[in-house]
Specification:
globular; 2 domains; 14 helices; single chain; 333 residues; 5-stranded parallel sheet; Rossmann fold
């Protein structure tokens, strides 16, 4: 059986603090630079020989491609498993899957429906488990989003991030992050499409910033630094699409809504995008859109996360070196 002395999972942000998140962002910058230097420098392969089982019960483009390429570039090997083919909680019990995959692999990445299933995987696996999306949350996406703002020098304690649309799993993860990092998060959603109550309560209780729910998108967008959206109809909600289109029509990110934000505001979308619904092509393809940047950064942040989980000594070594270099620079100045 493959085991890790100090098994770490990434199911959400609850086990992280602000300092650890910023450390992960700094390591993501390093990871991204290594890729940009290739092939001029020796490939950086800190998880060479490691295997990662990837369970996908939902369709995926960015998550699947970014994880598979990332694992390969780090020197590991990815095994793709379709949720239906292995029969999660139908053909086989979750605890059996978790224990079996732990004997073959070094980590599990799972994109599932019920959040309880990934919690069960983590409970019964002896190897790290990564939440690549559930109906409750999408923490890998929000890590990449916040990192993108950090990389561009836009992240600060007073940044106003406005999510316009459904209080869905992506919104839940933004709210969860707002309970850890100091910033101003606003969810502009219809009254009947609120986020998870427990996540909202916890974030408001623990937040060093602020979390607001506003039902008027134009009011919410005023002085925003970031306008963010997601599809109005998520996977599994196709039968409610027509009703949702009517409900969310006023929550579209378009030139008028962008005009209410700061002149320097940027636009983000976790994708896939339904152009002409939650966002117009004019805004999505416009000069203030950083949508493709955040999509690309899924690769770099997830690679950093995998190194943290699978080769923590390498991760610690980087940060020790990084701190020493910062001290040296300060002494010279």
């Amino acid at each position: 059986m493959k085991t890790h002395a100090s098994k770490r999972d990434f199911l959400g942000f609850s086990h992280l603090d602000a300092g650890k998140i910023i450390e992960l962002f700094d390591f993501s910058l390093f990871i991204k630079k290594q890729r940009q230097k290739a092939p001029a420098v020796e490939p950086y392969k800190p998880i060479a020989g490691k295997t990662v089982a990837m369970i996908f019960s939902k369709p995926s483009l960015r998550t699947r491609v970014s994880f598979e390429i990332g694992i390969h570039e780090l020197g590991g090997y990815a095994i793709n498993l379709e949720g239906k083919s292995i029969g999660v909680n139908s053909r086989e019990a979750v605890e059996d899957i978790a224990q079996l995959l732990s004997r073959y692999n070094d980590a599990i990445v799972a994109r599932l429906h019920e959040h309880s299933v990934i919690e069960a995987l983590a409970k019964h696996a002896s190897i790290p488990v990564v939440n690549a999306l559930t109906d409750l949350s999408h923490p890998c996406q929000i890590l990449a989003d916040a990192f993108t703002l950090y990389e561009k020098g836009l992240w600060h304690s007073n940044i106003k991030v406005v999510f316009v649309g459904d209080g869905n799993n992506v919104a839940n993860s933004w709210i969860e992050l707002a309970g850890i990092l100091p910033f101003h998060f606003v969810l502009a959603c219809p009254e009947r499409y609120m986020p998870d109550a427990r996540i909202l309560e916890s974030a408001r209780k623990n937040s060093s910033g602020s979390v607001e729910i506003i039902h008027d998108p134009m009011k919410a967008a005023r002085d925003a630094d970031v306008l963010y959206t997601d599809v109005w109809t998520s996977m599994g909600q196709e039968d409610k699409a027509e009703k949702r289109l009517d409900t969310f029509r006023a929550f579209q990110i378009n030139s008028a809504l962008l005009g209410a934000a700061k002149p320097s505001a940027v636009v983000m979308h976790c994708m896939p995008a339904h152009r002409g619904q939650e966002i117009t092509s004019e805004v999505m393809d416009g000069p203030r859109s950083i949508i493709m940047d955040e999509a690309e950064n899924r690769l770099h942040v997830q690679k950093a996360l995998l190194v943290k989980l699978l080769n923590h000594e390498e991760y610690r070594k980087f940060h020790l070196t990084h701190r020493l270099q910062n001290v040296a620079r300060k002494l010279k100045s």
